[in-house]
Design a protein that fits this description.
Layout: H1 2-15, H2 18-67, H3 76-80, E1 85-88, E2 108-111, H4 128-133, H5 139-155, H6 160-164, H7 168-175, H8 178-207, H9 215-242, H10 246-275, H11 282-297, H12 300-310, H13 327-331, H14 335-362, H15 368-379, H16 384-411, H17 417-426
Antiparallel strand pairs: 1-2
Length: about 425
């Protein structure tokens, strides 16, 4: 009963303290604003995706009607080339809870025979602190960086106030155990913050109908949140026990926050940047400029052999036969060679990025904030690996599109209904009417 009385006492103390209430409300309003930004970004992406799908559907419908009005089979390459091929990364229903890199990485890509996964519309990265300068607050940033600050503001004078006015012994006489008394008061604020953040998590999940479809991710987010808050709470609780006076408690709490949220992540970031400098994709640019031009300068026979090396089955096509070689057609399909050159360069970039990420993961044991941030963004599908998986899907579509185009060109294939249906299935263009 005494524990409950202490808990209720802290509630009344919080309610009657304008500074704490206003600080808490500022945090809540910041969360609301960040969630609003997340929903706004999600809506823009969804609207763009609907527009893209509508465009593709219109052209698919046009071609479908086209089959009923033709007397002879058309050229497959020309007809299918009329239909736009897109790869799309739909926004996660949990995106409002963690924007991550969603504003900087492309979420849709029009696939052509000259596309690559490192085109300008695919890889523009910006860190969270830089995003704040632009006025866009990320909810995960508030939780990971600012929530501990709020916890400091709400709890720094627990016991410190009594020590400052020298009536701590009276508390000891009335309650008995000072550590228990501190713990109960401290837990009021811990539970307040957990309930507040859980409200926003469940609100987003309910609005986006993700409570059951993304149950695992939501559960993981909640576990991550509780672990994070309790980790800081343990540190702050220990500092309250071992400190004397509000000023000393506040100073030590702020110092702990600075070390864990600023100094260590900043030092790791600086070390990683020195070890793996910013990749300006020089390998990829060299491949596009130098090696691509060299391909264009190759004689037709060399281009022919390179294409046969990439697609051995081309040898059985019409224009691969010695007496049917079409130099113009061969040169028109050099994009297949350029794609292979790009893939080699992109693999080097991906390996460097992977090495950089491995180095960051190696720091998790003393840099928990990086672990928390990467994990949080992975659950909202806005982290590096979510977009890396998307780039792999883009590359797969590029490879399929190029292979299809090359074989249709070399074999002068005529379009059939079966081929058309297979094309729609391969590139996920089977829209529902």
């Amino acid at each position: 009963m005494r524990l409950l009385n202490v808990f209720l006492y802290e509630f009344n103390h919080f309610r009657k303290n304008p500074a704490k209430v206003i600080t808490y409300l500022i945090f809540v309003f910041a969360c609301i604003y960040s969630i609003y930004n997340g929903f706004d970004l999600q809506k823009k992406q969804q609207d763009t995706i609907v527009s893209i799908e509508q465009e593709a559907q219109n052209k698919v419908s046009f071609i479908a009607n086209f089959f009923g009005n033709i007397q002879s089979q058309p050229d497959a390459l020309e007809v299918l080339g009329y239909i736009p091929i897109y790869t799309i990364k739909p926004p996660s229903p949990l995106l409002p809870l963690g924007i991550g890199q969603a504003e900087q990485y492309g979420f849709y890509k029009k696939i052509t025979t000259w596309s690559s996964t490192y085109d300008n519309d695919m890889v523009e990265e910006l860190a969270n602190p830089e995003r704040l300068v632009n006025g866009n607050i990320d909810f995960s940033f508030l939780i990971l960086f600012l929530l501990p600050v709020l916890l400091i503001i709400l709890t720094y004078n627990i016991r410190g106030f009594e020590q400052d006015f020298r009536f701590e012994k009276l508390i000891s006489v009335q309650f008995g155990s000072i550590p228990k008394w501190i713990f109960v008061r401290f837990m009021f604020y811990v539970l307040l913050l957990i309930v507040t953040v859980l409200f926003f998590i469940f609100f987003v999940a309910l609005v986006n109908n993700a409570l059951f479809t993304h149950f695992h991710q939501i559960g993981s987010l909640i576990l991550l949140l509780v672990t994070y808050i309790f980790s800081f709470s343990f540190i702050f609780y220990f500092l309250i026990l071992k400190s004397h006076g509000s000023s000393a408690i506040a100073f030590k709490m702020i110092s702990a926050w600075l070390v864990l949220c600023v100094i260590i992540p900043g030092a790791v970031h600086q070390f990683v940047s020195m070890t793996y400098p910013v990749n300006y994709m020089t390998d990829y640019l060299d491949a596009n400029r130098k090696e691509t031009y060299e391909v264009f300068d190759l004689p037709t026979d060399s281009i022919y052999l390179e294409l046969i090396k990439i697609y051995p089955d081309l040898f059985s096509t019409k224009y691969a036969q010695p007496n049917h070689i079409n130099a113009k057609m061969i040169r028109n399909t050099t994009y297949a060679i350029v794609n292979e050159i790009n893939k080699v360069s992109i693999e080097k970039i991906e390996k460097q990025n992977n090495s950089k990420n491995e180095l960051i993961r190696a720091s998790y044991w003393f840099n928990p904030l990086a672990y928390m941030q990467n994990k949080w963004n992975s659950y909202t599908e806005t982290d590096y690996y979510a977009y890396r998986g998307y780039r792999m899907d883009v590359q797969r579509y590029i490879d399929q599109n190029i292979e299809r185009s090359v074989f249709q060109a070399w074999d002068e294939i005529k379009l059939t209904k079966e081929m058309y249906d297979d094309f729609l299935k391969t590139f996920n263009l089977n829209f529902k009417n």
